[in-house]
């Protein structure tokens, strides 16, 4: 594919590579994901994975590695040419749909590697070691969509450039739900940037070190690969990226250690379960210039006609 931006075009020392794990089974969305990757489920009229790749490329990360698994061929097909479809649209003179179809294949330089055994997020990141090499890189998870009006990755890349080491993204969550996330202990650094002193993956209820939860955006020092190779399986019997980051947070800077975080307060959409997926679709559809006005009118009318809620006994 033709890259939107190549490493030769990037400034010296700039982060240009991103690893996006897409090997999960998507069991929360069964039976829809029995034969369709969850990353290909549409959010309005675009698969979720395309939003993530578009975000990466907009931040200058044009070298994209998708860590795939079995039955993920649809993802590769989506970012490949569709000659028959393109020809049919061209013959019909449907230039708008042709443009939208072709966009996914010119986003960046997209590569693929198979994870093989499903051994956790840390293992999925480790699968990218050969491609990434000895340079900082980003990791993006497909369950988190970040609104382009609140760019997060460019800020994280800037923080990594200034502080070195690794950078993660945190959000404030209700303490009652902190046990559902990886949570961080932090010290102030500057404005919305903090220094991470500890990380716990899905702590037991009531034991979280803070209400600051890790979300699916990372800029990592390549030292993470050696740490992951030494990391024993943790929660769920999987190699946890959070555990490796905890180790990095306690390592000296000259060894690639140190972890900072951006506390993100912008618009984020979660597609990780059915209810959040529906919320995301409705939110994004409501704001579309081509759909929003009519869709919002429909929602108002639909909600107004709903019967009063029946309280549980």
The order of strands across the largest sheet is 5-4-1-6-11-8-12-10-9
C-alpha geometry: globular
What is the architecture of the largest domain at the second tier of CATH?
A: Alpha-Beta Complex
CATH topology of the largest domain: Spore Coat Polysaccharide Biosynthesis Protein SpsA, Chain A
Tell me the fraction of residues in β-strands, as a range.
15-25%
Mean pLDDT: 89
Intertermini distance: 59 Å
Number of strands: 13
Q: H/E element string?
A: EEEHEHHHEHHEEHEEEEHHEEHH
Summarize the biggest pleated sheet: 9 strands, mixed
Could you estimate the helical fraction of the residues in percent? 25-40%
Q: What count of helical segments does DSSP give?
A: 11
Query: Which secondary-structure class do the elements indicate?
Result: alpha/beta
When the domains are counted, the total is: 2
Stretches where pLDDT falls below 50 for ≥5 residues? 1-8
Query: What is the class of the largest domain in the CATH system?
Result: Alpha Beta
CATH superfamily of the largest domain: Spore Coat Polysaccharide Biosynthesis Protein SpsA, Chain A
The value of Rg in angstroms is 20 Å
């Amino acid at each position: 594919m033709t890259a939107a931006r190549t490493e030769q075009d990037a400034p010296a020392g700039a982060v240009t590579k991103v690893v996006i794990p897409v090997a999960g089974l998507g069991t929360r969305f069964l039976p829809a994901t029995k034969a369709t990757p969850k990353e290909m489920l549409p959010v309005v009229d675009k698969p979720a994975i395309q939003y993530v790749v578009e975000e990466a490329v907009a931040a200058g990360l044009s070298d994209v590695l998708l860590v795939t698994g079995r039955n993920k061929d649809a993802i590769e097909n989506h970012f490949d040419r569709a000659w028959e479809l393109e020809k049919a649209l061209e013959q019909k003179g449907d230039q708008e749909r042709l443009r939208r179809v072709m966009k996914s294949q010119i986003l960046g330089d997209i590569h693929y590697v198979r994870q093989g055994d499903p051994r956790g997020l840390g293992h999925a990141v480790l699968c990218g070691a050969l491609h990434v090499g000895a340079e900082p890189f980003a990791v993006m998870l497909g369950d988190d969509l970040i609104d382009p009006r609140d760019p997060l990755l460019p800020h994280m890349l800037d923080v990594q450039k200034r502080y070195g080491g690794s950078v993660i993204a945190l959000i404030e969550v209700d303490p009652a739900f902190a046990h559902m996330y990886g949570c961080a202990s932090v010290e102030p650094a500057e404005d919305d940037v903090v220094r991470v002193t500890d990380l716990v993956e899905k702590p037991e209820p009531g034991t979280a070190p803070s209400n600051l939860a890790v979300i699916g955006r990372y800029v990592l020092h390549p030292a993470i690969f050696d740490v992951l190779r030494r990391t024993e399986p943790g929660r769920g019997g999987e190699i946890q990226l959070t555990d490796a980051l905890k180790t990095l947070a306690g390592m000296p800077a000259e060894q690639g250690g140190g972890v900072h975080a951006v506390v993100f307060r912008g618009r984020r959409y979660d597609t990780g379960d059915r209810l959040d997926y529906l919320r995301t679709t409705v939110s994004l559809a409501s704001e579309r210039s081509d759909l929003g006005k009519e869709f919002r009118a429909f929602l108002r009318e639909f909600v107004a006609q709903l019967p009063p809620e029946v309280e549980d006994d």
